[in-house]
Design goal:
mainly alpha; Cytochrome Bc1 Complex, Chain D, domain 2; globular; 3% strand; two-stranded antiparallel ribbon; transport; 29 helices; 10 strands; Cytochrome C Oxidase, Chain A
């Protein structure tokens, strides 16, 4: 979030009337109601048109049949073993293994060709052979695209050729999981032989719905994805039209928003004309700390420890693509390394640790900021017992983190019971590996995490209570901070709406409410509000302008990001409604992200002005410049990672071929680490700078960490993820998605070289980025200032008479807006 250095009026002659009328509050409420109405209507449509799971599957003309519940048993096995963190189904999941939907569909096509080739008369000439081959290919496409499901009896009828193909599919996976594939990081016997038949039927079902035409439509349940011309799957006209419309609409809306933004001066205003008041308290370190603020320091140590563990696991997995023997390590304590730490477990921990350390940084910032925003003059205030409850929250966080990580290892290595029934929720579901990417932790740990987030919300509320009382208006900045904090546990709770046996498409619908709405919606809102609160707290911008700018940004994020979730629904069996909505609104998500990029330079100018003003003051220098480094990095990666790379892969005509390639990984790394990771580190540095004694805060180490992290991230995205992703995109468009996602693709010489090259930016990221941040954090926490500070060094003293005169957040005057 940036601030303009000019203080020209906003909406001359009408600004105060508009603000007093509650325009921004009502506009945000109406926006939220509108977008969630669309999502609720879409949810109802999804429930009506979800791909069916048959009760019985009958082989035409043979009298053979098998129980359709085996499909759900296979889905349960897929989840129990954490295979979504090895390969993918319907394009969603990890990229080390194949996409099992695309692979199964190709296996079926090959087996059905073989079936009919053996039963047609031998050709008498080359011309006859060609006609015979064309006849076979046409028959296979016709049978795969025909939808023989009867909804009245819940019976799916398949042809003898499809039944033959299913036998071949089961034989293939039985052999694959028995012998493993060391070159593809798949341990032998990782999946029990008794689960293979059901698992094969689950893969068969996803392949069936990817080719079978929706009733009354000319395309399949997955909009003809994956690309497999031999099965009749090609890009739909709707995908092309939606792509064109989304680009045109993007240009129109972007122009409109930028016009309004600059025409009505919807930026923040600095506190004093063209510069920053050198006496503003926020330019310097706080004079006093509360016991609760000091207690929040231990969260920072968890942040950097988890960050280090997560990045080491990332480097481990990246190396596994090119040297699956893991640096020549074969065993540890006599246990094969691929069984002790399978790729699926490493990736599970890699994702979960990312969520944990980012969330922990935000917890620490919320706990530290709340009493600071509620202060009276220079004195921060907090309710009785805040420090004790902060210690309790810290213990609960460690319990959930350690318990869930251990449970995920137990579950994914097959050490927990499967439960009763076709998709029973045994121990694997409650304390092991739920099997959903980003939501891997067992249901018990998930419930405890939500409870922990609830406790954190209560502590934030207790800390903000004085500020909330001063700001009676429920639309004030302090209230917005509370609402954004409350949304974090609420939206994570949507992960509770599915269980074992839930139709895959329905579960994916709600899973993306957590991943996209929670991360790319609510996290984005939290980012905007916390950044505005930080700028106000540092005394750099006027609270009224910060509030107005925050409302404008939040409205844009909610208007585009919520419905933009639909771009994840193209190919998981949901109705075509989501194709148009996803194409349009995911493209429009670029608008607020572009706006943040436009503001980044202004933010930089604001920091420099603060440094100059502080340097001119007798009291010292601007203490929080490192925080601004990471805030600017957040704005940069928001535009590049979430905006540019997100837009590139989300156009339906591109996503049809790209879905589930390294381009997705490029977007994911740049957006998750670049945006939410950099914001989390900005908050870490802010809290650390405030807690540590001035002589114990290592700005040099933080500078090294900043450049190491950003250069390392840029290197892995630009040198490896994007080039390999473009190669996969070309391979998918030319030879089908199954070929692009086959593990053998990564052994292509040029791909192999690029994957080796990634070791360089990975090393920069870890050694020059994470390690210095760890050092700075440990050093600062070992030398924290006392809860009641005495006279501070010149750098920290500030100008108390001016600082006390400046209104607190929302405490009258300019802050009352």
């Amino acid at each position: 979030m940036a601030a303009r250095l000019d203080a020209r009026p906003v909406w001359p002659g009408k600004a105060q009337d508009i603000e007093r009328s509650g325009f921004w509050k009502y506009a945000l409420v109406l926006t939220v109601l509108a977008v969630f109405t669309v999502m609720v209507v879409g949810a109802a449509t999804t429930l009506r048109e979800v791909p069916p799971v048959p009760q019985i599957v009958v082989v035409e003309g043979t009298g053979r049949a098998w129980d359709g519940q085996a499909i759900l048993q296979g889905q349960s096995a897929w989840q129990r073993y954490g295979l979504m963190d090895y390969g993918s189904v319907l394009g969603n999941g990890a990229m080390r293994g194949p996409d099992f939907t695309a692979q199964t569909l190709r296996l079926m096509v090959q087996a059905m060709h073989e079936y009919y080739a053996a039963r047609l008369p031998a050709p008498g000439s080359a011309e006859a052979a060609g006609d015979r081959q064309a006849l076979v290919e046409a028959r296979v496409r016709r049978e795969l695209s025909a939808n023989r499901y009867d909804p009245t009896t819940r019976t799916l009828t398949i042809t003898p050729a499809q039944a033959y193909a299913l036998e071949k599919v089961e034989g293939y996976y039985r052999e694959l999981f028995a012998r493993g594939d060391p070159a593809a990081s798949l341990p032998a016997g990782i999946v029990s032989a008794r689960d293979v038949p059901a698992l094969s039927r689950f893969f068969f079902w996803t392949a069936w719905l990817s080719a079978a035409r929706r009733p009354g439509q000319a395309y399949s349940y997955t909009n003809n994805w994956p690309y497999e011309p031999a099965a009749g799957n090609t890009v739909t006209p709707g995908s092309i039209v939606a792509s064109a419309v989304s680009v045109a609409l993007l240009l129109a809306v972007l122009a409109l928003v930028l016009w309004a933004y600059f025409r009505y001066r919807l930026q923040m205003e600095p506190t004093a004309g063209e510069g920053v008041d050198p006496g503003a308290r926020g330019l310097f370190l706080p004079r006093e700390l509360t016991a609760g603020q000091r207690a929040s320091g231990k969260f920072l140590l968890v942040v950097v420890a988890l960050l280090l563990a997560q990045t080491l696991l990332g480097g481990w997995m990246a190396h596994g693509y090119v040297a699956p023997d893991f640096f020549g390590i074969k065993t540890i304590a006599g246990i094969p390394i691929d069984r002790l730490l399978p790729f699926s477990v490493a990736r599970t921990w890699h994702l979960q640790l990312a969520i944990f350390w980012v969330a922990t940084a935000w917890m620490a910032a919320g706990l530290f900021l709340a009493p600071a925003l509620a202060r009276s003059g220079q004195r921060a205030e907090e309710p009785r017992g805040q420090a004790t409850w902060t210690h309790v929250l810290f213990g609960a966080l460690l319990l959930v983190a350690a318990g869930s990580l251990l449970g995920e290892w137990w579950g994914a290595t097959g050490r927990l019971s499967a439960g009763d029934g076709p998709a029973g929720a045994g121990l694997w579901w409650w304390i092991g590996h739920q099997g959903w990417e980003y939501l891997e932790l067992g249901r018990l740990w998930q419930l405890l995490l939500i409870a922990g987030l609830g406790l954190w919300l209560v502590l934030v509320y207790r800390g903000l209570r004085r500020a909330l009382k001063r700001q009676q208006d429920p639309g004030s900045l302090a209230h917005l901070l509370l609402y954004a904090s409350a949304a974090i546990p609420v939206f994570y709770g949507f992960g509770l709406l599915f269980k074992p046996g839930t139709n895959w498409a329905i579960a994916e619908f709600w899973r993306w409410w957590v991943i996209h709405l929670w991360v790319e919606g609510i996290f984005e809102v939290f980012t905007l509000v916390v950044t505005a609160a930080l700028l106000v707290h540092l005394g750099l911008v006027r609270p009224s302008s910060a509030l107005r700018a925050t409302y404008f940004q939040v409205i844009l994020v909610m208007a585009t990001g919520v419905i933009g979730t639909a771009h994840h629904y193209y190919f998981v069996g949901l109705p075509e409604l989501w194709l148009a909505l996803g194409a349009t609104f995911s493209a429009l998500e670029v608008v607020p992200l572009t706006l943040l990029g436009v503001e980044a330079y202004d933010q930089y100018r604001l920091m420099r002005a603060a440094e100059r003003s502080a340097g001119q003051a007798a009291s010292g220098r601007f203490a929080y410049a490192p925080v601004f480094w990471f805030l600017m990095a957040t704005a940069f990666w928001n535009l590049v990672g979430a905006g540019i790379l997100g837009f590139f892969i989300n156009l339906p005509a591109v996503n049809y071929f790209e879905h589930g390639t390294f381009l997705t990984a490029a977007h994911g790394h740049a957006a998750l680490m670049g945006v939410y990771g950099m914001l989390a580190l900005a908050l870490l540095v802010f809290v650390l700078r405030s807690l540590a004694r001035p002589d114990a805060f290592s700005e040099r180490a933080v500078r090294w960490g900043f450049w190491g992290l950003n250069l390392g991230l840029a290197g892995m995205v630009a040198l490896t993820l994007i080039p390999v992703g473009i190669g996969q995109l070309q391979a998918s468009a030319g030879q089908g998605f199954a070929f692009a996602r086959d593990p053998a693709f990564y052994q292509t010489p040029w791909v192999h070289r690029l994957l080796w090259l990634r070791m360089l930016p990975d090393s920069v990221f870890i050694v020059l980025g994470v390690v210095p941040m760890l050092w700075a954090t440990v050093k600062g926490l070992l030398h924290m200032r006392p809860a009641t500070a005495g006279p501070q060094p010149a750098e920290a003293s500030g100008a108390p008479e001016r600082a006390a005169a400046r209104p607190a957040l929302g405490a009258g005057g300019d802050g009352a807006a």
